[in-house]
Each structure stands twice: as C-alpha cells, then as structure tokens.
Amino acid sequence: TRHLLSIDDVSADDIAKLFATAAEMHDVQKREVKKLPALRGRTVINLFFEDSTRTRSSFEIAGKWLSADVINLSAKGSSASKGESLRDTVLTVTAMGVDGLVMRHSASGAAHQVAGWLDIPVVNAGDGMHEHPTQALLDCYTLQRQLGGPGSLEGKRIAIVGDLTHSRVFRSNVKALGKLGASVVAVAPPTLMPAGIAEWAKADGFATSYDLDAVLPEVDAVMMLRVQRERMSGGYFPTSREYTVGYGLTRPRLGLLRDGAPILHPGPMNRGLEISPEAADAASSRILDQVSAGVAIRMSVLYHLLAGEESA
Ligand code: CP
Fold first, then answer.
1. Across all residues in the chain, what is the average pLDDT?
2. pLDDT digits (tens, 9 = 90+) for 41-56
3. Which of 42, 68, 150, 286 could form a disulfide with 99 if both were Cys (CB 3.0 to 4.6 A apart)?
4. Is ligand 1 within 6 A of the CB of residue 54?
5. Cα of 309 to ligand 1 centre, how many Å?
6. Are 19 and 37 contained in the same domain?
C-alpha cells in the first residue's frame, strides 16, 4: 500500500508528477462545474485529532471534486473523547469500508503508526512537530509557479523564518525544497532553533542564521512560520514584542526584500507578531495562492494514491 507520510516517501520525479497533475487540477478549480469522475465510488475519511481550517477543508473539497465520498471526523465529538484508543478508532472507521485515510494528530509519528495497522493509503495531514508533507508540496508548487515554472527552484535561495523548533512545515519544506534543488536558510531566534540543528543542517545541506535583516536581501522568497504558542508549555520567550522586533516581517523589513520576492505563510497567521498586515496583504504575498494550490495538490495526492494503477 502506498502512503504519503513524509516527504521522504516521494522522489524529485514523484514531486514533478504530482505537480503536473496538480496543474491540471488547478485548471479544474477555475471551471464552473468542478467535478471529475476519477474517484467515483471511493470513500475517504478525514480523521482530525487536532484543529484545522485549511488542511481539513481542502482535503474535503479535493475529495469531493474528484467525486469521492468524504467523511470528516474530529476528535471532539468522536468516541476518542470517551477514551477509545487511536488503534481502535482507525480500525473501527476503516472496518466501515473506507478506501483512504487522511489524518492529523498532535503526536509526532502518529500517521506512521497508523499506516502500519492498515492496508489502505494513509496521508499525513500533520503529525505533531514532525511533518506536514502536503503543506510542503503546496508551498513548493506555489513557489515554483511564481519563480518561473518547472525546474525554477533549482539554485534559488529560500528563507524559512520563525518558530522552527515546533514546525512540521519547516521539517517537510527543508526536505522538499532540497529535492527540488533550492538552497534553504533557516532563520530563528536561538530559543526557537531546534536542538541539534547544526548537525542536521550540515547533513541536509541547509544554512542557519539568527540575523533576519542580513538574510532578507539575499533570498528569492521568504516563508514566514507561525509562532506556535500552544506547543510552548514552559512559557514564551522571546516576548511577543521582542519576537516582532527581531524576527517579524514588519513593514520596514519589506524594503529589504528583492523586488517582487514572494512572501509565503502556511497559516494560520498571527498578524502583528510574525507577519505585519502590510506583508500579509502585500502585492507579493502569495498566501492565498498557497490556499488555492492546497486544493490542487491534495486532489493530485488523492488521485495518485487512490485512482488505481491503470489511471494513476
Ligand atoms: N497550514 C495549515 O496546516 O493550516 P490548518 O492548521 O488550518 O490546516
């Protein structure tokens, strides 16, 4: 059974195929009637143990536009709140005959664990601080379109800025951007740099910096990340004010970026903390393009995993 649990599961060639299909799906998004018959008769369950706006609704739209039956189940309102285990929950829902499972969970590794229990494709929609592969795919797809189409990420320099410690988006994007030939510079305050990042950066070939002002003029695009206060149990440092002064994409910092350099943020945004309204709403902001690409990428992923060998 094929799964998408990590960017490790896809090669550069696989990504190119997923992007080519996503481009076709993007055209479908512009049509008045958006349904394709590709997954007619298939059933997909979105099982979300953590909150989501973009990922859950875009997987639902993606499945529906491919004519799959889509069921949404969140931990709140399911029997998980009565103490049912993760294993019993996924075995129960798959016993109903679903063909694919999309899952978000706060525990790193949860999707891998579940994939080992099931013989249907599992898509990781975010597992703790580990990975969020479809987010990285939609981010790279958005950047590639902005920077000149297929192959255009090769040799480009991309800054990923913010709360790197808690970010599954960072971990998936470092892998995906690396596979597509981009060079990454990871920027964060020392307190939000993951432990052991120096060895990791050396092994995976990316750079790190504490100095956002020095990095911004050198990059082709900037990806801002959310400060994840809900994952900070022992208090919050630096303070919000210090964070914005040192690491926020403020109005004055926009002037440090190259003309037209795309600004990305996976959402949800803390406006006024890691990103100013002027940056979020700038002409070069691609944040809503990311959301739109999210549907196309998730249609592509569901299609390749579920449509069957003869049509994949
Ligand atoms: N980017 C992202 O995963 O957003 P949601 O948490 O709203 O799904």
1. 95
2. 999 999 999 999 999 9
3. 42
4. yes
5. 30
6. yes
Q: How far apart are CA 170 and CA 93, in angstroms?
A: 31
Q: What is the 51 CA–ligand 1 centroid distance (Å)?
A: 8
CATH code at position 180: 3.40.50.1370
Q: How far away, in angstroms, is 263 Cα from ligand 1 center?
A: 17
The answer on whether 290 is annotated among ligand-binding residues is no
User: Which residue's CA is the closest to the ligand 1 atom numbered 3?
Assistant: 55
Structural domain tally of the chain? 2
Computed on alpha carbons and rounded to an integer, the radius of gyration of the chain in Å comes to 19
- 172 and 250 in a common domain: yes
User: Cα(first)–Cα(last) distance of the chain, in Å?
Assistant: 14
Q: Could you read off the pLDDT of 58-75 as tens digits, one per residue?
A: 999 999 999 999 999 998
Domain range for 52 is 7-132+291-306
**pLDDT value, residue 236:** 63
Predicted pLDDT at 235 = 61
Q: What is the pLDDT of residue 311?
A: 42
Residue nearest to atom 4 of ligand 1 (CA): 54
18 with 95, same domain: the answer is: yes
pLDDT tens column, 173-213: 999 999 999 999 999 999 999 999 999 999 999 999 999 99
